[in-house]
Amino acid sequence: MSEQFVYDLKRTHSCGELGLEDVGSQVVLMGWAMRRRDHGGLIFVDLRDREGITQVVFNPEVDEGAHSGAHTIRSEFCIALKGTVRERPEGMTNPNLVTGGIEVYVDQFEILNPSKTPPFMLEEWIEVNENIRLKYRYLDLRRPEMYANLMLRHKAAAAARRYLNENGFLEVETPFLTKSTPEGARDYLVPSRVSPGSFYALPQSPQLFKQLLMMGGVERYYQIARCFRDEDLRADRQPEFTQVDLEMSFVAEDDVMDLTEGLVANIVMEATGQQVSLPVPRMTYDEAISRYGLDAPDVRFGLELTEVTDLVAGAEFKLFATAAAKGLLVKAINGKQMAALSRKDLDDLTSYVADFGAKGLAWVKIKPQGEWQSPIAKFFTPELQQAINQRLDAVEGDILFFGADVPAVVHESLGRLRLELARRFELNKDKGLTFCWVTEFPMVEYNQDEKRWEAMHHPFTSPRQEDLELLTSDPGKVKARAYDLVLNGSEVGGGSIRIHRPDVQAQVFAALGISDEEAQEKFGFLLEALTYGAPPHGGLALGFDRLVAILAGEPSIREVIAFPKTQKASCPLTEAPSRVAASQLLELGLRVEKAD
Amino acid sequence: MSEQFVYDLKRTHSCGELGLEDVGSQVVLMGWAMRRRDHGGLIFVDLRDREGITQVVFNPEVDEGAHSGAHTIRSEFCIALKGTVRERPEGMTNPNLVTGGIEVYVDQFEILNPSKTPPFMLEEWIEVNENIRLKYRYLDLRRPEMYANLMLRHKAAAAARRYLNENGFLEVETPFLTKSTPEGARDYLVPSRVSPGSFYALPQSPQLFKQLLMMGGVERYYQIARCFRDEDLRADRQPEFTQVDLEMSFVAEDDVMDLTEGLVANIVMEATGQQVSLPVPRMTYDEAISRYGLDAPDVRFGLELTEVTDLVAGAEFKLFATAAAKGLLVKAINGKQMAALSRKDLDDLTSYVADFGAKGLAWVKIKPQGEWQSPIAKFFTPELQQAINQRLDAVEGDILFFGADVPAVVHESLGRLRLELARRFELNKDKGLTFCWVTEFPMVEYNQDEKRWEAMHHPFTSPRQEDLELLTSDPGKVKARAYDLVLNGSEVGGGSIRIHRPDVQAQVFAALGISDEEAQEKFGFLLEALTYGAPPHGGLALGFDRLVAILAGEPSIREVIAFPKTQKASCPLTEAPSRVAASQLLELGLRVEKAD
């Protein structure tokens, strides 16, 4: 190697851009070594940076020094090199690579930093234990798939900001050290040193602050905000997550929903190039539950729930007849051309729906001429069978599934069964992105454990004006001015028109069993703010991690978060959370009573 | 009022845009009432929204109902109205207002929400106790000045993002729940419920994560990141603050500094319309201290420090002569044409510099023919007086100030005196924005209390290659590859080229007296990450609150933060921090030992 260091030169190109038009150029590349192959006296290395891969060749005829040093190069060595672009010999080109027509003959190079053998292979990816990936996240992120996910997330955020900026929104930062209001999920607390015995809470969302900004006359606010919930991490949750949070003054439902449709269409287009067809269809909560069993319906396929209570009321099948007589609900879904399901499949599905409270799963396979094949067939007259077939549009090769129970169980279990069938039969394959709105949610739901009504969204959601009187007399009937945005069966956003009148807010707190005193203590500042000319306002938050994961085609949000936590809310890389020095606790006036 | 609600109509205009070209148009406005004046049977109200103010007129001849209802309107009532734009009568126009040529004659209106009398006036602003402003921040933010600050901040953030996006940077979100590394400032801790006795820490900066992203091959990262430091809030600090955080791979100092200059020029242009002249001048740390006494010099004016140790060594003035003999430093600044300072002024200045360790402040007023007027004049021969005059370019009307002590005290006290003189004589008035870079900071400084060397920036800052050997032999002489960006005498940014080689990182930890064991425990994951081909990298963080405050011409960063904390780290609006439920602490396994 000569006196002049390659690293002192300007990098001229990325590893993802050189082509035949560059043949003959002198270039400076920097990146990481992938495969090294020694072949015919030459050493071939695939050099990777974030933009792509370029094959570089160390030839002893070009530079003896460079060639012999190249023998030491191993996977993930960080390298700078200078060389000349050459066309690859015939038969050696790689049409799968942008740079596959060329290679760089190295004149000079430096190893900027060597690497130990990585704990897992970055190329020819095979599934690696996720804990290992997270512990060595800095290696995991070097994989092009992971970089693509970060890039997609970046583009999605940039698109959101651009669109909202263009629509008159102000990005405003709200506090992270805020007040604990143990309503909803569990807060993460932050002990105060200046006021020992007092605590801040990390925000579960900027909800109150964005409402205060509307009261402050900002009119249109947004923030891509980190939020925190100290929940048990079932499923695919993270203790900290990100939402695109927005709020608007002087609006009604349609204003927020129209704006949001433009927002997601722009995000999808700029992040993935796909067109979202607008307007996004809307259905009420009642319709979603009735047709799909769930409030976040996957509308990419049929398999809708159909009520048959009236038909089965006359059947000899006791379970259904009794259910109908007791005023319970009997519904069915038609698994179109799914009759090939085996006995074992059906047993699996029965146990699957049991998780959602179903006490069993009656099924009927449809044979030629609509004949039923089923353990329960004998309890149904041929006329009744035909009537049910007709209502469900059942033909040979179909399979019917029945649920009979209280409505909540029937809807939940058949709704989940519907998704499980779609998964097994790949009904969503290549279906792309399908959005829908669900509107007119119930204002409250009854918490059986605590024997009280709870806000279904949050206690700042406005009830419909015409339902105000029901708040005290029949709260379960009150509809909220709330709306959820659903993408491919996942809730990716939710919002509402908020309460802006102090008397209505007080009524809602009362309906939720929050005493005046408690309301004052927790939300006194909000109630007071409402008395100073608060404007009508509403907004929405998009679950950004989930949205990006769906756009990236990733099953888990952890794949689109640079440094996620495990299901135990720990970070295998930094080993957070960890013990701290006794002096730190002393300053906070705290003692650990119980430790793992 | 008619059956149709005004609020159901679309708002057609903001309160800041109607002009003579709109005369005759039907418009719908929404906003807040300011002054109400009853005059000649008409009621005049200034309606304000975030865009401006429009005068609206309730005329009983137009709508009897609207007019009588208008009597109830008070300050800060939130109102929707429909009306017709009319030219104001001659003599009634207001040239100070965009909309000052017109008024809106109201056909119909609604009070969307009444308001109690605000605790302070929003118009004709008089200084209000800041605690009251913060308690009613939602009213304070309605003032056009505050909205302008939020808008400026929004524009600055948007400009930063646009520029960085265009320069190949990825916005990546790093964790808030991370590991406590009690290096530098005090961490805010977050107790873990899943692992009782363990704690997360809120990040003091995303420093380690951005370095890990470079090791992960991201190459160019940025984030407008909230950071947290549990420090005593002297001066103008906040427990949570925002920085524009960026990091780049395969770079040296010039790359980061050039990029940053483009960044701040874009921010300044888009937020304020001002042009920053590039390149930003650079000076070394040693030069900054020598000429200005401080490492964040205000270079908008002269009053530089000049050494006179050699000259005063021969004076009869014991203090100076002894100082010179002991190898201490004697410096002076020339207060050009400031000799009119009174005895009281000089006493004040003497007590001012005493705060920075100066044991006194010798001064000399220059009379005709360069004659000295000063208590110490008699200890200096006329020749010596002339020699000093000459070196300091002193002429009649000037006043010289001297400092004689260890260099640190001389520089700090004269450096501060320099700023105080500039403040008193308004030397910076209308001087605009002046940036400069300070480079080649010392790697370490000696902590007298703890008798050990400490990192001046942070322990991941790279020493200069040529100084590596001094790390063990003479650490105080090692220069770091660090640079600060200074704007009008305030540090608004700082960064460095980082260490990317594990052996160098280990050497630096050793020089800082961090044992191998301690380094492993705190930064083991970083040391390990360096062994897997970490690329050379460096970056910078801009103090976004301070930068925006300077651009807004605000003395305090609290004026550019929507919901700031007080000096006691509390929020007068939400009353955070606050007591929490015993059950919350029980779940965390914590007990409060000491409470306020």
From TrEMBL, chains A, B:
GO molecular function: aspartate-tRNA ligase activity; aspartate-tRNA(Asn) ligase activity; ATP binding; nucleic acid binding
One protein family per Pfam: tRNA_anti-codon
Residue ranges of the region described as Aspartate: 207-210
Top-level taxon of origin: Bacteria
Reactions mediated catalytically: tRNA(Asx) + L-aspartate + ATP = L-aspartyl-tRNA(Asx) + AMP + diphosphate
Binding-site residues for ATP, renumbered to this chain: 229-231, 238, 491, 543-546
Residues that hold L-aspartate according to the record: 183, 229, 457, 498
Keywords: Aminoacyl-tRNA synthetase, ATP-binding, Cytoplasm, Ligase, Nucleotide-binding, Protein biosynthesis
Site (Important for tRNA non-discrimination): 39, 91
Gene, per the UniProt record: aspS
NCBIfam families, per the entry: aspS_bact, PRK00476.1
CDD domains hit by this protein: AspRS_core, EcAspRS_like_N
InterPro entries: Aa-tRNA-synt_II, aa-tRNA-synth_II, aa-tRNA-synth_II/BPL/LPL, Asp-tRNA-ligase_1, Asp-tRNA-ligase_1_N, Asp/Asn-tRNA-synth_IIb, AspRS_core, GAD-like_sf
Enzyme Commission number(s) from the entry: 6.1.1.23
Record's subunit section: Homodimer.
Compartments (UniProt record): Cytoplasm
Any one of the GO CC terms: cytoplasm
Organism per entry: Desulfoferula mesophila
Domain spans labelled Aminoacyl-transfer RNA synthetases class-II family profile: 158-564
Gene Ontology biological-process entries: aspartyl-tRNA aminoacylation
PANTHER family: ASPARTATE--TRNA LIGASE, MITOCHONDRIAL (PTHR22594:SF5), ASPARTYL/LYSYL-TRNA SYNTHETASE (PTHR22594)
Protein name as it appears in the record: Aspartate--tRNA(Asp/Asn) ligase
Family affiliation: Belongs to the class-II aminoacyl-tRNA synthetase family. Type 1 subfamily.
Chief localisation class: cytoplasm
